[in-house]
Specification:
The structure holds two protein chains of two kinds. Chain A is built from five helices and no strands. Chain A has helices spanning about 20-40, 50-55, 60-65, 70-90, 100-130. Chain B is elongated, with a radius of gyration of 18 Å. Chain B starts with 19 loop residues before the first helix and ends with a helix. Classes of the chains: A mainly alpha, B mainly alpha.
């Protein structure tokens, strides 16, 4: 929980990893943009001509490939997690510092609060703020 | 954790539709932990296993594309692209594997030193790019 609200997500020795926050923010922007258009296109549309106008625009390429932007998050997770795991393994003489299932459970606990918050937000607050 | 691979329901029936991302994230942690340990102890085995994992995922993808008859653009497809293909772990694992390869190699660059001249050991990936 402490790490979840920490100002710095990475340890002092890995200050260079802070640049990944920039990549994350950019990716969030592209994903939100892509999802916005995706939900417009999959919903009922009156002005179909605008869709052809969008698709023929070269800038729309950013929206079309937005579905692959999520891979950047997996890339970052794979990068940081393998690095952190190796660092801890190395410090522990090549052995796991805890049972692998316990490490998995810790990861699960780290993701759970935000997941529960989002379910609660969508269930209760989303309707109150107008969707 | 199994909401994106369970044969019943579907990603659209979840409490939170984008939760397929978290399910994959948890799934990918299994190979990440196991393979990171291999990187430290049996490096050759690590590269072989990453290759096998990536190849298996591509094979499943090709079979799925052929079976569901997908085209190059998701705009021309029915909803199966999003429900049966896009959210599955075998479709999304490659980005994770590339990140893992680079993370492991960055660890070598930062912490492993050549015993003779105390220089960082050039990784296989760095050598390929050079």
């Amino acid at each position: 929980m402490k790490k979840l609200f920490a100002e710095r997500k990475y340890e002092k020795e890995e200050e260079e990893f802070e640049i990944l926050n920039l990549v994350k923010v950019y990716s969030i922007g592209v994903i939100v943009l892509g999802n916005t258009y995706y939900y417009i296109l999959s919903g009922p549309l009156q002005n179909l001509d605008i869709v052809y106008e969008w698709i023929s625009s070269p800038n729309f390429l950013l929206v079309i490939v937005a579905d692959l932007q999520v891979d950047v998050f997996y890339w970052i997770t794979g990068f940081v997690l393998s690095f952190a795991t190796l660092k801890k393994l190395n410090a522990n003489g090549g052995m796991f510092w805890a049972h692998p299932l316990k490490i998995l459970f810790q990861r699960y606990l780290r993701l759970l609060p935000l997941y529960v918050f989002m379910i609660f937000f969508l269930w209760f607050f989303m309707g109150l703020i107008g969707g | 954790m199994i909401n994106n691979i369970a044969p019943w329901g579907g990603v659209r029936d979840n409490c939170l539709e984008p939760s397929w991302y978290l399910a994959n994230d948890i799934w990918f942690m299994f190979p990440c932990l196991f393979l990171s340990a291999q990187y430290l102890n049996h490096r050759k085995l690590f590269y072989i296993m990453v290759g096998i994992l990536a190849f298996s995922a591509v094979t499943i993808q090709i079979i799925q594309i052929a079976t569901l008859n997908f085209s190059a653009s998701f705009l021309s497809q029915n909803d199966e692209y999003w429900t049966d293909y896009y959210t599955k772990p075998w479709t999304r694992i490659h980005g994770y594997l590339i990140g893992m390869l680079l993370g492991c190699n960055y660890f070598s660059f930062k912490y492993e030193r050549d015993e003779e001249n105390n220089e960082p050991i050039p990784s296989k990936i760095t050598t390929i790019f050079i």
